[in-house]
Amino acid sequence: xVQLVESGGGLVQAGGSLRLSCAASGRTVSTYxxxxxxxxxxxxxxxxxxxxxxxxxxxYADSVKGRFTISRDNAKNTVYLQMNSLKPDDTxxxxxxxxxxxxxxxxxxxxxxxxxxx
Length: 118
Prior knowledge:
This protein is mostly beta strands. The chain has strands at residues 3-7, 10-13, 18-25, 33-39, 46-51, 58-60, 68-73, 78-83, 92-99, 107-108, 112-117. It is built from no helices and eleven strands. A hairpin with a 4-residue loop joins strand 7 and strand 8 (78-83). The protein is globular and about 40 Å long.
């Protein structure tokens, strides 16, 4: 099973940027679809973005489209989430997840906190 560790979270002012990283170990994720999800206090975890392993095609939640960019570096076994024009509503714990082809994201990281102040 693949292990995922997120990093790069922190406190930023509205309008600022952060780049989250998700380092995978245990197995190569070059043939995994990878995703980012987030969970704000008192809310359900929600989808943010994902990237396919074969085509590198990307998908985004409407709430982050045009502001966030997901990318991957298979040589480093790492996935990134570049977040620009951050808003207070983006405040959440961000989780990285991996889908080995089972149809769902079966491996999850522990999360990294992102806090956007107004």
